Structures are given as C-alpha cells and as structure tokens.
C-alpha cells in the first residue's frame, strides 16, 4: 500500500514523520500541502500526478468544536466539508450544493474511519469521528462557531486544507481521510493560547497508530 500524507506546514510534517519513524520503507510519503484549500489542492494534484497512491490523508492541527473535540484530542473525518463555499443570502448561507454549482462534501470510507479511530483509541488519546470542516478563514468569534455548528450537524473540527486535498484525491478516484489533532477551540480568537506542543505530540502519536493500521 502507498499512502500520501499532506500537512500544511513543516512542524506538522515533522510530527507525522516522527510518528512514522518505524514504518516500512515505501509505504508512506509525507509532503507539504501549504496553507489553505487552494494551495493544498494544487500541491495534492501535483503529488498525485508524480506518484501512485492507494490512499491520501490530510493531516495536521485544527480547531475543535467545543463540547465535541477537546484540545489535545484527535478527530477522524467521517466527511470533509468546504464549510464556507457558497453564498450569503438574506435567508442565510447557501452552500454550493444548494446553489446547484457543485459539491462541498467529500465522503470518507466508513470502514477506514472505524479502523483508524480504533487504532488511535488504542494509543490512549481521546478520539472522535465526525465531519471536519475546511474554511479559508479561521473562525474567530463565538457567533461564527455557533453558526457553523448549527449549519453542519456534528461539526467536530475545522482546518484550512482538508477539502482541497480531498477534492484532488476524489477527482482521481483515490480514497481520502482527514486526521486532525486539536490545538485550540473553535471560537473567539486567542492565537497565543493555541496548544501547539500538545497538538504536535498528539499528531506524532496518532501517526504511529496510522502506521499500525495501514500496512
Ligand atoms: O494565526 C492565525 O490565525 C493563523 C492563520 C493561518 C494559519 C495559521 C497556522 O498556524 C497554520 C497551521 C494550520 O493550523 C490549522 N488550524 C489550527 N487551528 C485552526 C482553527 O481553529 N481553524 C482553522 N484552521 C486551524 C490550519 O489548517 C492551518 O493550516 C494560523
């Protein structure tokens, strides 16, 4: 099996590589996607054109929805959703799907979600399986967080790359999964309080679990 893992930034990539240190050679390829859905889609497309892969994983740190995914925990995507792709209307937000222009949701194989979630749970980390949102703008208010949770039932975490990675993989018919470790709650902006160390440590441990389950 050949697995392509994409992270937004180098510290995330390094955490994943530490977790995969004992992986069999040739199974995992960990590359940088860049920050944001568009850069991630471009770089995933390039990587998929250059190599053969059986599975693509978008991995990194993320905001966790309060009451669903705590700081230091892990979220595995059941669906990867472009949460701000659409239009504002007088009646509220309309997604691209509702407008009839395309798809904002990429499905994830349920059996894969189950296997990876169980493997991560075995490490002792708290883990939750649910929809992971992709946003071009990091949520910075309680109002936006509440609106996202209302619009997308089960919303568990938000990052900035998952949908770009997922769409590129989906276009090629390659299964995709998103794995995020939580550095901060989704809500009022307090960048200084992001728990990067905890989130990178969890990313390393969760990557070790990936190695156990994807051989
Ligand atoms: O300080 C900022 O507001 C900021 C803006 C853009 C990127 C960053 C990063 O630190 C890049 C890392 C990566 O982190 C993900 N992330 C983490 N927490 C959240 C969140 O609450 N909402 C959305 N994304 C989040 C994201 O995928 C970035 O690429 C910081």
Structure, explained:
This protein has 215 residues and is α/β, with parallel strands linked by helices. It has a single domain, classed as Rossmann fold. 37% of the residues lie in helices and 28% in strands. The protein has 7 helices and 10 strands. It has helices at 10-19, 37-50, 96-99, 110-122, 142-151, 162-171, 196-213, and strands spanning 3-7, 28-32, 55-64, 74-82, 86-89, 92-95, 105-107, 127-134, 157-159, 176-185. The strands form 2 sheets. Strands 3-9-8-4-10 form a 5-stranded mixed beta barrel, surrounded by 4 helices. Strand 8 (127-134), helix 5 and strand 9 (157-159) form a beta-alpha-beta unit. Helix 1 (10-19) packs across helix 7, helix 2 runs parallel beside helix 6 (162-171) and helix 4 packs across helix 7. The termini are close together. The model has no long low-confidence stretch (mean pLDDT 97). Residues 8-9, 35, 60-63, 135, 138-139, 158-161, 183-184, 186, 191 line the site of ligand LNDFFVEH.
């Amino acid at each position: 099996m050949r697995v392509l893992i994409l992270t937004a930034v180098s510290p995330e990539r390094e955490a994943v590589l530490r977790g995969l240190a004992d992986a069999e050679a040739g199974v995992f390829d960990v590359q940088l996607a860049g920050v944001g859905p568009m850069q991630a889609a471009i770089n995933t497309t390039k990587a998929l054109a250059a190599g053969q892969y059986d599975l693509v994983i978008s991995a990194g740190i993320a905001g966790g929805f309060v009451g669903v995914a705590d700081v230091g925990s892990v979220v595995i995507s059941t669906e990867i959703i472009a949460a701000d792709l659409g239009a504002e209307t007088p009646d509220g937000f309309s997604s691209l799907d509702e407008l009839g222009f395309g798809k904002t949701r990429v499905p994830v194989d349920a059996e894969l979600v189950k296997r990876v979630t169980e493997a991560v749970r075995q490490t002792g980390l708290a883990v939750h399986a649910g929809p992971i949102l992709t946003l071009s703008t990091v949520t910075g208010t309680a109002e936006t967080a509440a609106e996202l949770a209302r619009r997308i039932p089960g919303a568990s975490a938000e990052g900035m790359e998952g949908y770009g990675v997922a769409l590129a993989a989906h276009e090629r018919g390659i299964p995709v999964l998103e794995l995020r470790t939580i550095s901060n709650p989704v809500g009022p902006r307090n960048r200084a309080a992001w728990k990067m160390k905890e989130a990178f440590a969890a990313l390393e441990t969760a990557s070790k679990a990936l190695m156990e389950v994807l051989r």
